[in-house]
Amino acid sequence: MILHKKLVCLTAALLLSGGLFMAEAKTILLVPQDDRPVSLAYTVSTAEKAGYDVLTPPKAYLSGKNYHGSPDQVWQWIKQNMSKADCVVLSTDTLIYGGLVDSRKHNESLDTLMARENRISQLHKSYPQVPIYAFGTIMRTPYASNSGVEPYYYSNYGNALYRISGLQDKMDTGDITNEEAAELLSLKLTVPSEYLQDWFKRRTKNNTINRMLIKDTQSGLFAYYCEGHDDNSKNSQSAMEARYLGKQSQKLSPKIYGSFPGADQLALLLIARYHNDINHLKPTFASIYPLGRAEDTVPSYESQPIGKTISEHIEAVGGTAAGKQTPDIVLAVNTPLSSTGESGQFSNYGMMKPSTTDFMNRVKDVVDRGIPVSMVDVYFANGSDNTLMSLMTQNDLLYKVAAYNGWNTASNTIGYAIAQAILAPNMSAQDHKDMLIEQYIDNWAYQANVRKNITRLTELEHTNYKPTPAMKEEMIAELQDFAKRKMNLDPATISADFPWGRLFEIDAKVSPTPKYTVYLTAAEKQRRAEEAAKKAAEEAKKKAEAEAKAKAQQAKGNTNNTGNTDNATDATSAGEESDDDISTIVIYK
C-alpha cells in the first residue's frame, strides 16, 4: 500500500478520534547539536506532536548562547537514560566537541576527540538492540562572521580566510589561474600565521574525526549516519573536505549514509527516518516548481542545485521519487526566476507575480485532489516569500497543507519540510495546526517582516544589534499584531523570545488557548497616544467654548441688569420732573 492511502486513513482516524492513538509511544533519546529552537524546541515539539516521547539532556549540558557544551556530562546523561530509549538520535558534534559552534572554536587535542568518538561504538556494544541515528558536520567556511560563532579573529580576517580556502580548493582541482595563484600567496601574507595555523589545524582534527565516523558507518555501527555540509559554497575548504570524504564513503549504501548541505534540519530528518523505518514506510515524492530555473536553482549559502539536495534528503528518510505513479507527498518548491535573495530585502514586499499565482493554482489543485503538500519556500534565504504567503492566505491554504517551511538556508527548509510532512499524519488536527503556526510565526512573521523592524531599532539605539528588553516586548507585540491581522489568531496565543540574545532567531511559542500577555506595538501606542491627545484637545476645546459661552451669557445678563437699572433711574427722574410739573400746576391752578 502506498503511503498517501495510509495518510487518508490516518486523516479519517484523526477526524473521528481527535488524534492518533498509539498503544505504546516510542521513546527517542535525542542529543541535539545545541539548544537553539530549530535544533531542540521545534524538533522535540514536532516529534511529540507525532506521538513520540523525546528525552533530551539538560540545557546546561548543551551548547547555548555562550556556546560551551559539555560532552562528558552529556555522555553521563546518556548512560543514565539509555535503558529508556527505543532509538537514539545523536549529534556527533555535541558528543565530541560540545556542539556545532564548539566544533568551530575548540582547542581539544586529537587524542581527546578520538577518545570521545570511540564512546559511540562502546554505546552500541552495550545496547546493540537500540538503533543509532547520528549526524555530524563538515566545518563551514563562511564569508564573514561578527556574531561570535567563529574564532575571535574571524571578524577581522574571515573574508581573507574564506578567499584563501576557495583558492586552495581551486588549486587542488587544478582550476586556479596564475593571477589567482599570486593572489593566494599575497592573501596568506596578510593573515597572521598563528591564525592560519589555528584555523587549519582545527579543521584537520575535525576531518580526522569525520573519517572515523565514516569507518564506523562502514562497520555497521549506525542505522543511518548523515554528514551535513554546514553553510558551504562551491569553492571553499568545506567543499574540498567534502570531496575527499566522498571518495572514502563512495562505496557506502545510501540506505545507511548521506552527505549533503545543511546542519540544523538533520535531527528532525533522522527522527522522520526512524519513523519510516519502524512503520515500514517508503514514501514516494514528487516536486512541483514555478516558472524559472526550478530544480537547477543554486541557492544562497550552498554549492549545488536544489533538485540534487531534495533528492538526497528524500533518500535520507528512506523515500523515493514517485515516477509516474501518484506520489505520497508533493513538495511544492517555491524558487525564484533566477537567484535567491534575502527575505529582508525590499524586493520581498509582496507584489503579485504571475509565476507565483500560477504556482499557487497548481498547489491548490494538488490539495483539492487529497494529496499531502509540503511547502518548500526557498524563494528567499532566511524567511518567507511574502507574495507566496499572501496567495496562500487568499486561497485558504494556510492550514490545508501538510507542512510549510521557509527559513534559514534552502537545505534547512527542505529537511524540515520533508520530515514534518512525514510526521504530520500522526498528529491531531490541533497539533498539526499549531505546528504550522509555529513555522508561520517564525519564518513569515518574524524572519521576513518583523526582524528588519527590530534591526532598525537596534541601529537607532546603537545596541550593536543586541535586543534590549524593550525591543523584545516590541518584537512580541509585532508578532501578535501580525498573527491577528494576517492569520486571524488570538494574540494571546502567541509569544516569542530571543533565545541566544541576538536578532537572527526567535523561539516562537504557540498555545492552542490564550495564555500569553498581549503587548501593544510602538505604532499602536503612538496611535492611541495621538488619539487620546486629540480627544483631550477636543474636550478642552469644548470646555473652553462652554466656559466662553457661559461667560458671554453672564456678561449679557449683567448688561441687561445694568440696562434695567438705568431705565428705572431714568423713569424715576422723569417721574420726579412730572411731579414737579404737576405740583406746579396744582399750586398755580
Question: What do you see in this structure?
Answer:
With 589 residues, the chain is an alpha/beta fold. It has four domains: 25-143 and 203-280, Response regulator (Rossmann fold, 3-Layer(aba) Sandwich); 282-427, Rossmann fold (3-Layer(aba) Sandwich); 450-519, no CATH class; 526-589. 53% of the residues lie in helices and 11% in strands. β1 (27-31), α2 (41-49) and β2 form a beta-alpha-beta unit. α2 (41-49) runs antiparallel to α16 (429-460). The longest helix is centred in the last third of the chain and has 66 residues, at 522-587. It is globular and about 115 Å long. Mean pLDDT is 90; it is low at 1-23 and 568-589.
The rounded distance between the terminal residues' Cα atoms is: 143 Å
Task: Write out the CATH superfamily name of the largest domain.
Answer: Response regulator
Name the beta content range.
Answer: 5-15%
Low-confidence stretches: 1-23, 568-589
Order of the strands making up the biggest sheet: 2-1-3-4-5-6
Report mean pLDDT, rounded to a whole number: 90
What is the number of helices?
18
Gyration radius (Cα, Å) is 35 Å
Number of domains: 4
Roughly what percent helix?
A: 40-55%
Number of extended strands = 15
Question: Could you describe the largest sheet, including whether it forms a barrel?
Answer: 6 strands, parallel
CATH topology of the largest domain: Rossmann fold
**CATH architectural arrangement of the largest domain:** 3-Layer(aba) Sandwich
Q: Look at the structure and give the CATH class of the largest domain.
A: Alpha Beta
